[in-house]
Amino acid sequence: MAQQTSRSTAAELAIDAAIPRPEPANVPPPTAADFKLDPNRWFGHVEKAMPLLAKPRYARTARYGFCRCGEPVKYVSEIQRRYESYSNLIVLN
């Protein structure tokens, strides 16, 4: 039985840390509750969780896989900004 030798230099430790480790197949995907986020609220909750789907660690376990989630987050934020601007115009008049 071969023993694993311990890394001693900083360079060896850095190289070892950079090597991606496969995750077990039976690990369930993270949920909003794992991050203490409400899956029914966009701002401050889903808005924070969606960009994680662009990371391979989360995309592998997600139902639909990888997502470039920066685009929908930006889109919804722009809609909210416009809504607030229009609401302020109505209140002022």
Q: Which structural category fits the helices and strands?
A: mainly alpha
What percentage of residues falls in helices of 4 or more residues? Answer: 40-55%
Radius of gyration: 21 Å
> What's the mean pLDDT score?
75
Taking the sheet with the most strands, its summary is: none
Number of strands: 0
* Topology as a string of helices (H) and strands (E): HHHH
Shape: elongated
What percentage of amino acids are in beta strands? under 5%
Task: Describe, in plain words, how this protein is organized in 3D.
It is built from four helices and no strands. It is an all-alpha fold and 93 residues long. It has a domain of 62 residues. The protein is elongated and about 65 Å long. The termini are far apart.
Give a brief description:
The protein is an all-alpha fold and 93 residues long. The chain has a domain at 31-92.
Defining traits:
47% helix, single chain, mainly alpha, 93 residues, 4 helices
Question: How is the secondary structure organized here?
Answer:
Elements: H1 10-18, H2 42-49, H3 56-59, H4 70-92
